[in-house]
Amino acid sequence: MDGWRKWYSGTDESFHKVIVNNGVSVCEREMYRLYMAKKVAEDWANLLMNEKTKITLDHRHSSVILQGDDGNGGILGENDFRVNINRLTEQTFALGTGAAVCYLENANIDEYGNLGYSPEAKIKIDWLAADNIIPLSWQQDRLREAAFISDVVLHGDKFAYLQVHRLEEDSYVITSHFFKENDFSYKEVSLPSGIARKVRTGNDTPWFTIFKPNIVNSLFPDLPMGISVFAGCKDILKGIDLCYDSLNMEFYLGKKMVFLRKDLLSEDEEGYLYAPQDSNKQLFMYIGDKTMDGDMIPKEFNPTLRVDAHTAALQQQLNYLAGKCGFGENHYRFDGSSVATATQVISENSNLFRSVKKHEIALESQIVSFARGILTIARDFIGRRVLPDCRIAVCFDDSIIEDMATMQRRDLELLDAGVMQKWEFRQKYFGEDEKTAKKIIRETIKETITETEKERN
């Protein structure tokens, strides 16, 4: 994980710091690099969790409490869900695992740590990357107990906030600890006001949700942690930065040079030599009684730059990376100065299409579990009249795969031909379940009939 973090940040000192020996001295320099590990993680986050991704519930009041009337409010809106879930998805694909951990602000807790109703309480969410998660117990790849570490700064001092989620008699108990950092060591100190030492939730619904890419952790198959989407691409990432560094050094070392004999140089009052061009004498220069022979003519050095060879090699490395990370080859295009995503028609048989659908399966399950956990807390401890067991679905944005307007026009033609039913259309594009879609259609038909009868009368 530490290695993934280095490549995600774009700085692996063991590789990117180059020792140069020019025959006179030894010096260090930083390699030029493209930061492609972060680019890969960003692109997966943008494909899966963008502004068009929607969560739908078949219980309206639960939906309003969870995300407001417009999908941007409610509990999720108060916690900047759309911004934070995109960032968490990026970190999850970069480091293999992420977590969303809930806690209650202004909660009603007795001296034994038991939670009671508190209508004024607020559900807050911590968004944590893989290196802030410590697994404690698990079954297969399902994490049952865990500890979560958050970095906190109070009045200029650095602290580590530790939350431990454990099962005691089939119900979760959350204990909190605070550690002060001092000279790279930590000492436990008293908890700040407002943080309870122990919280008994009273049920077996976890207050945390673990997010992972839908790929097997082949490095540590017995652990409940995920694996980075570029875990098997270290050599390719090195190759990309090598090509890009060599391309830049080609221009740095291949600058035009002009060799002059010392006789052609002038000397200033302080004894420093300078070329004619430095004094704007580019047309005429007095050389005294010296003979102008061939040896005195300035010599140019114009090395041939191997730009095409470097660009082709870099493009090939990018193709390797895109294929290994699930995008399919030719996903990235190097235009000579930067990397852009190739514009292409993505068919249902493409590697990208299959990879997107594969990750959507796991991500939907994780988001649904996350939403149910929030609704359970809202029902049991804030007194909200919600249904955690209602149907929850996630509608992902597939317009990156196929233009949404084109898809709708095609399905409307199928609807007119009688091949597709109206409820199927609503289910596909509005995220409704079959029962809700049919109910809305019946109500729409009744309203249409009523309006028609009024017009006749």
Task: Report the sheet-strand fraction.
Answer: 15-25%
Number of helices: 12
Q: What is the terminal separation in angstroms?
A: 74 Å
Task: Identify low-pLDDT runs.
Answer: none
Q: What is the total tally of β strands?
A: 21
Radius of gyration computed on alpha carbons: 31 Å
Question: What is the residue-averaged pLDDT?
Answer: 85
* Structural shape: extended
Decide which structural class fits the backbone.
Answer: alpha+beta
Fraction of residues in helix:
25-40%
The biggest sheet, with number of strands, parallel, antiparallel or mixed sense and barrel status, is: 6 strands, antiparallel
Please tell me about this protein's structure.
- There is one protein chain.
- The chain is of the alpha+beta class and 457 residues long.
- It has 12 helices and 21 strands.
- The strands form 8 sheets. Strands 8, 9, 10, 11, 12 and 13 form a 6-stranded antiparallel beta sheet that branches. It has a 3-stranded antiparallel beta sheet with strand order 7-4-14. Strands 1-2 form a two-stranded antiparallel sheet.
- Helix 3 crosses helix 6, helix 7 runs antiparallel to helix 8 and helix 11 crosses helix 12.
- The longest helix is centred in the last third of the chain and has 31 residues.
What tags apply to this protein structure?
single chain, about 450 residues, alpha+beta, six-stranded antiparallel sheet, 21 strands, about 35% helix, extended
